Amino acid sequence: MNPSSFFDSATGIFAIAAVFAVPIISVIAVLAIVLAVVNRRHRERMKMIEQGMMPPPPRKQTGSYNGLLIAGAILFAFGLALFAGQLASRGNDFTGGFLFGFIGLAMLACFAIIRRARKNEPADKTDAYQPTPPPMPPKP
């Protein structure tokens, strides 16, 4: 079967459409979910304001740096494996091993720097949200 007849057939058209449709639909689905969550939060805050309540301030986003550790370790191990494979096969092209190895080392260094910076941060307990007490009913 030559390539032009594959593209002309219904199977070829379906295969190409499926290959491109899955990533596009998944990106659209993720965007729709994010939009729905943001819209719901906004409506909740607006409803609280309409009822005279003070909505809580947005939470301070504190990201996790554990992803850097995991990704760095995986990439470093992958680069080390490529490097060892090139050495074992007596090849002379180490760029793949070095590339992944140094990216992994950079991620591990970022992990160490962020962890040290977070340890040196003062524990800030002052921005904890304290809700206002409900109003007292009028006395007769």
Task: Give a description of the structure.
- This protein is mostly helical and 140 residues long.
- Among the domains are: 9-50; 66-118.
- The protein is built from four helices and no strands.
- The protein is flat.
Keywords:
single chain; 140 residues; mainly alpha
Ordered list of secondary-structure elements with their pairings:
Blueprint: H1 3-8, H2 10-50, H3 66-88, H4 95-120
Helix pairs in contact: 3-4
Poorly predicted ranges (pLDDT <50, ≥5 residues)?
Answer: none
- Computed CA radius of gyration, to the nearest angstrom: 27 Å
For the termini, the CA-CA separation is 92 Å
Number of strands: 0
State the share of residues found in helices, binned by percent.
55-70%
Multimeric organization? single chain
- How confident overall, as mean pLDDT? 78
Overall spatial form: flat
Proportion of beta-strand residues: under 5%
Structural class given helices, strands, pairing? mainly alpha
Order of helices and strands: HHHH
Number of discrete helical segments: 4
Largest sheet: none
